[in-house]
Write a structure and sequence with these properties.
Length: about 375
């Protein structure tokens, strides 16, 4: 038995659950394609309580975060969120994360579930070199649900008097009253759709989950699992740690160079490698592939050109929105221009594919 979120008992009989990084989590409720479609056209509700939360506080918080994060912490204002990476000295990725500025010298970092211990140890080991920085793993103080899709704001608005339209993209409000339960409400997500991520007390999670599903029923809100979360984020080309980003793949190679401010003044871990990649181009990069031959490019499959191995698939599936077999792959840069034909090793056969534009999906509004 793995770790269980505060919502496990609510859905354990309705969902198919799997072990995901040591957590028992729902992979699907009604079905991946159905849930995917619900998020693209109406709204979906996800349990993301397995994510980790780390508080960083103190007068040394900003210099410390500037050193461990690739984005520019100085640019973030109170009630704002920022996407960033943490890197090793060689430029590879420790994790990618979103963090929130709750007040002066008060930050909340939200890290990937499989990396909580590793990230916490990494942060703590570097905090020792800074004056007045407190780093605390507060993961057990939060449950997290995400409501995503075109109807997300409408549904969430039914349970709060806070004007959600005022919480714009990558902004948040703390202590928002949701049906009598206080929560941090952030306009962020991992699906390529509009929506919110909600951080509440673990003891409120089940009541909040049920309340939202009840209020959202008329607008087609459905509970969704990790399967749809993965196909949604993949179509929107949102990186997944362990696939698009690893200790051997830099943020620049993975296409999240926008979160690396190589020209910010303070030194940060990995800066020289990342600055060189931004200025001179990395030797490989993440691209989209569309299969020409029949087959699905799965994670880890090797990619070839003229008989030479040129890279590998990081994620691939049949895109529910496009109804095409597509993948993301890290390839040598000389093979990354649009239309380039390559071959993907699918079991014993090399199947034709071509480099295509990404993201595979972009919402229209």
């Amino acid at each position: 038995m793995g770790n269980r979120t505060p919502l496990y008992d609510v859905y354990k009989d309705q969902a198919k659950t799997i072990d995901f990084g040591g957590w028992d989590l729902p992979v699907q409720f009604s079905g991946i394609k159905d849930e995917h479609e619900a998020v693209r056209t109406k709204a979906g509700l996800f349990d993301v309580s397995h994510m980790g939360e780390v508080e960083v506080k103190g007068s040394g918080a900003v210099p410390f975060l500037q050193y461990v994060l690739t984005n520019d912490v100085e640019k973030l204002k109170t009630n704002g969120a920022q996407y960033t990476a943490m890197c090793y000295h060689e430029g590879g990725t420790v994790d990618d994360l979103v963090y929130y500025k709750r007040g002066e010298n008060d930050y909340l970092l939200v890290v990937n579930a499989s990396n909580v211990e590793k990230d916490f140890d990494w942060l703590r080991s570097h905090a020792e070199n800074f004056e007045d920085v407190e780093v605390v793993n507060v993961s057990d103080q939060f449950a997290q649900v995400a409501i995503q899709g075109p109807a997300a704001e409408k549904v969430l608005q039914t349970v709060t008097d806070t004007d959600l339209a005022e919480i714009t993209f990558f902004k948040f409000r703390d202590n928002v009253d949701l049906g009598g339960m206080p929560a941090l409400v952030s306009r962020t997500g991992y699906t390529g759709e509009d929506g919110f991520e909600i951080y509440c007390r673990p003891e409120d999670a089940a009541a909040l989950w049920n309340l939202l599903l009840e209020k959202g029923e008329a607008d087609g809100l459905q509970p969704c699992g990790l399967g749809a979360r993965d196909t949604l984020r993949f179509e929107a080309k949102l990186a997944l740690y362990g696939q698009e980003l690893t200790k051997d793949i830099t943020p620049v190679e993975a296409g999240i160079g926008f979160a690396v401010k190589a020209d910010k003044e303070p030194d940060f871990i990995g800066k020289s490698v990342l600055r060189d990649q931004k200025e001179n181009g990395a030797s490989r990069k993440l691209v989209g592939l569309e299969m020409i031959d029949k087959g699905i490019p799965r994670t880890g499959y090797e990619v070839f050109a003229e008989g030479e191995e040129i890279g590998f698939v990081t994620t691939g599936t049949q895109s529910p929105t496009l109804k095409k077999n597509v993948g993301l792959a890290i390839l040598g840069k000389e093979h990354t221009s649009l239309g380039t034909e390559v071959e993907v090793q699918v079991r014993k056969r090399r199947l034709k594919a071509k480099v295509v534009a990404t993201p595979f999906y972009k919402r229209s509004n």
